[in-house]
Structures are given as structure tokens and as C-alpha cells.
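Archive transcription. Copying these from loose printouts into the bound notebook so they stop getting lost. Printout 1 of 2:
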Amino acid sequence: MKNIFERWSTKALMYHTFRCLRDRIHIDANARTNGSLITEQAKARVLHEVFGHWRYLSRLKSHEKSTAQVRHDAILRGHLTDWRRTFRQRIATRVIMHAKNSRLLLLVWNSLKMYTAEGRKKDTFRRKSRRFRYFCLLSSGFTGFKQNKENLYQNIRNFKLKTTEKLQRSLFLAWKTFTLHRKRNTEIEGTIKSANQKALLKRIWYSGFVIYYMQVQIVKRKLDDAIEHYEHTLLWKTITAWSKWCRDQKMLMEAFAQRARDHEAKKMIQKREHCFLNWKEHAIHRLCTRHIAAYIRGRCEQRLAYRFLTAWKIYLVKVRQKSDMYQRAKLHERRTLLLRYFTEWNYKREQRIRCRKQLQLSLLHWKISLQRKIFLTWKTHISMKMEERARYHAALEFRHQYFIRQGLRLWFLASTGLQEQRLQSLEMVQAAESMRVWRKVACIARQWRSKTLRARERPNAPIFPLLPFAMAQKSLYDSEKQFGRKKPLLLRDNEFTETRGEFHELNVFPRARPRPRKPFDLLFGQHDMALQTQKISHNHSQLKSVPEPKMREIGNEMSSKCRKEDIKSSDRACERLLSIEELASRLEHWMRRKRNLIEKKKHVQAMTSQIDGGILTAANSACRKRFVELRDALVDRIVSEEKEYNAAKQEIQDLAHVVALLRAEKTPKN
């Protein structure tokens, strides 16, 4: 949704910009239209005044004519001053409007640059916030997973402690029951045996062995005391060793359950110690009060207890080893699975991040390219409009100057064409003599100019030898100022009328505006332009110099008659020549192509660095293939353009040389 809003705002800004430019162009067009209407009205008024003055002069005498002519010269000088002032004001207005348009373009470009920078900054913040949220979610997930695993391990340890306690309780109860049963059986057997012995002694041995028995009893009592002391010592050592082993086992269990809760471990240890101490006191009391029958029975019980405890210890060790192996296997399996899934998840994550970055880079490149194309198109459109406006303005200026010259010529011919018939014969004789002299001088000047301006064979001669023709055009005008002015139209004049009457000299000038200049840079391509240039350069030696206009001069007045073919313009000989602006536009075209070629090379280098930098991995091989194909196509296009540019290097050098020479000659020398 945000991208749609950004695109809409960009389109709205561009639409507003082009609408402002369109309104400005419309205002300029209206101003030009109003200016042209005012110019037409002024021209009609001037022509009307000239015609009225001509009619007024036709009715005056010679002394009145001179006075009226001086007055009319002053009026004409005032009109020319006003026209010059108006022309300067128009130039200043055009400069101000150009500066205003440039400032508007600068403001639009700065606003567009600020907008793109703000969008890029927002995109950076959004990307960073997404990355931070992603890492927060990942951290919370891993924290929960870790807490669950710790709770599971704690429950397993508590379960092991409870099962061990229950197993010890059951074993101690079974061992106690077994010892009590054996004790009861031995007591019963001892009682029966003692009763039988007593009965036997009473029946058989009582009478004969009473004394011996008493002695034996004394010795036996002493021996029983020793045996009792020995058994008591042995039992104390056995119980001490067993209690020590139990304490060691208890320490091992405490070490095994060191992460359990401290208060529960202390309670369990206190309960065990209390139960064991009570049982120990009871066993010692019972053993001290009873009579140990035989050493073998005690030894058997000792061995039985030792074997039982050894077997129980081995069983516990095996159970612990099995549980440890199971835990290790389970931990290894979990780590292996987690490592595999985490590796796959990490690879997919990196691939998604890489694809996202590539998409962002491609969108950014597309956006910048589109903006650049839009701006270049708009700039080209504006430049074309400005060039068209300049050409139209130059054509209008030429047309106005042409009508002013025509009016001045008509006025001059009208003022000098109504002389008395008494001077006509003298004028004809003088005109014939001056024409003969002028033709001879023109022939000598033409031969001398053809020799001096003949093209020399130089090693680095320009392709367009326009300098001799430009110098030949100088003879078409009467002064250096007329030759230095701008000549946008180099086409043949229109047809003249053939009417001859009393004032037939007024009909020898064209009555219509000449056709506009042909755009040679648009009509001809590169190959056609080269052929046209070669054709002009080859036919340069065959072209004839432009003849001088043949006019007669009698004192300070001109003849009222001149031949039609002597006043025709020599634009036909220069029709195929290129003007300075056209050569400059051609040179600017080649310079623009050179700059575009340099920009394309930089773009190809950037694409190559992206391909070599590892941004396009093997996961998106299709995108990489299209990217490489695009780069190769661009390289082929650059190679072809380089070939064209290298082939036209000599032409560019000649164009630069010729333009510099023509501009240097066109610049007035102080």
C-alpha cells in the first residue's frame, strides 16, 4: 500500500511539474502571438507612412524634396531607435524568462531529490526494524526452547532421585526381613539342640561327667567370652566398613543430585541418617544381648551380605552407566537433528535475505533508470521546444528585417526614380561607362580571389571546406556589418515579377517571405552526411565565385534602372552549404554520443562487479543468466558504438576546427 502511495505521489509531482511548464509555454506562445500582431501593425503603419510620404514627394519640387527627405530621415532614424530599444527589451525579457525556467527546474529537481532521499531513508529504517523484530522473535523462541529443556532435565533428575529412594527402601526392607527370619530360625535350632543336649546329658553323661562338664563349662565360658569378643569386634568392623561404604554412596548420590533443591536433599539425608542410626542401635543392642552360636554362621552371613551389597553396587553402576549412555545418545541425537535443521534453516534464511537484497537492488536500479529516462526525455523535449522557439524567432526577425529593407529600398527607389527627363540621357551614358568599368574590375577581383582563396593540399585538411564559401559570401553585402549579421536562411529567392512599367524597379524584389532553412542534421544520417560532405569537398574546386551585384552609381544617387539578373541573390550557390549552427549541432551530437558511451561503460563495470562479488549465487541461476545476457548485449552495443565513434574521429576534429574558424571570422574585430 505504501509503495502504491509513493508511486501515486511521484506521478502527481511529475504531472504538476509538466502542467506548470505547459502553462509557461502557453503564456510564452500568447506573448509571441501578441508581439507578432503588434509587429504586423507597426509594419503596416510604417509602409503606409512610406507610401504616403512617397506620394507627397511626387508632388514636390527639388528644393522641397531635399527638405522633406531630411525630415523623413529624422523620422526613420527615430523609428529605428525605437525598434532597437524594443529589440533589446525583448532580449532582456527572454534572458529573464530563461533564468526563471532554470530556477523552476532547479526547485523541481531538488524537491524530487529530497523526496527520493526520504524514501530511501524510510526503506532503511523499515528494513532495520524488520531485522530487529526477526532477531527478537528468534531470541524468544530459543529462550523458550532452552527453558523447556532445562525443566525436562530437572524433572528427569527428580524422577531418578525418587526411584533410587524407593529402590533403597525396598532393598533395605527385604534385607531386614531376611535377617530377622534367619535369626528366628537359628534361635529355634539352637534351642532344640540345647534341649536335646541337656536331655542327653541328663540321661547319659550327667552322672559320670558332671565334674568334667563343669570344668569344660568353665573353659567353654572363657572361650565363649573370647569368641563373643571376637565376633563383636568383627561385627563392629563389618558394620563400620559397611557404614563407610554407605557414606561414600551417599556422597556420590549427593554429587549426582547437586542441582536439586537444597532443602529437599537435606531432608532426605536427615531421614536416612535417622532411620539408619535407629536400625544400627537396635542391631547392636540385639547382637550384644544374644549369644553368637558359631563363627561359621556369622561368616556366612558376612559373606552373604558382602555378595548382596557387591551385586547391588554392580547393579547400580550398570543402571547409572545405561542411563548415562542413554542420555548421551539422546543428547547426541538431539544435537545432530538440531544441527541439521538449523543448518538448513540458516541456509534458507540467508537465501531469502539474498533474494530480498537482489530484489531491492533491482527495484532501486529500475527506479533510478526510469527517473533518469524521464528527466532526459523531459530535458530533450524542453531543449527541442527552445530550439524551435529560437528558430521561429530568428525567422520572424529575418522577416521583419527583410520587410524593413524592402520598404527602405522601395522608398529609396521611389525617391530617386522620379527625376526629370532632361537628365535621362546623361544618366544612361554615365551608367553604361560605369557598368563597363565595374565589370572589368569585378572580373579582375574574381580572378584574384579565386587564386588567393584556392584550397591548398594540407595533411590535416578539414572535411567541410566551408571557409572559402563563407569568404565568398562576403561580397554579397555592402559592408562588414551586413556580412557579420546572422543569416539563417541559405535558400534561393522566390521568383520575381516580370511587369515593366513606369516604376518597374519596384518589382524586382521578392514580395513573399523566403522558405525556412532545411534541417540537414535531421534529413541526413551519418552515412548520407559523410557522402554529402565528400561531394561538397570534391566539387569545391569546380564551383564558381559569386558575382558582385552590378549597380550603377551617379554621384550620391543610384540609377533608377538596374537589370533583374544583376540584383539576384547568390543564395543558389550556397544552398548546399551548412551553417555554423548546423555544424555545431552535429559536433554536439557526437559529443553527446561520447558521453553516453562513457556512462554505458561505467554501467557495465558496475554489473561486472555485482556478478563477481557473489551477489548472484547458484540458487538463482536463472536471474544470474539473464543478468549476464543483459551485460553481454550491452557490451556488444558499446563495441559497435565505439567502432562508429572511432570511424568518425577525423570528422569530429574537422568539425571542431571549422566551427572554431567560422566563429572567429564571424566575431567582429575591434
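Printout 2 of 2:
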Amino acid sequence: MKQKMDSPCVAAHSRGMKTYFTPRLLEVIVTPQEPALWKWHVSEANVELAHGYATSQQVAQSSGDRALFAILSVALSK
């Protein structure tokens, strides 16, 4: 049997449903600054949350990843 969308059963069910949030998209970007200097930054929607510098691309990527996980761990603990 098909129920109308405005029936009391559907309305009661809708009130009990969880509301979902839009997930955050954080990204780590590594860019060369000089021949021996790389900048990493963690951003969300073009807003820089953290940044730093390293002497190699691999170290910069690793540092950026660590910063990303630190940001995520702080967000989860709240």
C-alpha cells in the first residue's frame, strides 16, 4: 500500500531521521619554491589551515600528511 508523503506516519519518521552533514574535503599540496625548498600546505576550499617548508618533495609530502592527520585527530576529539 502506498502512503502519501504528508501522512502522519511519514512525518513522524522524518522527524526521527538523522540529519547528515556535508563532509569536509582537506587536501595536502606540495609545491616547489626554490631548487632545494618545497612548501607544503593543508587546505580546505582554498583556505590554508597549515603550512611548512622542507628540503625535499618527499619530506614535504610526509610533513603535510602528518599535519593533515593532526588536524583530523583534533577534529575527532571534539
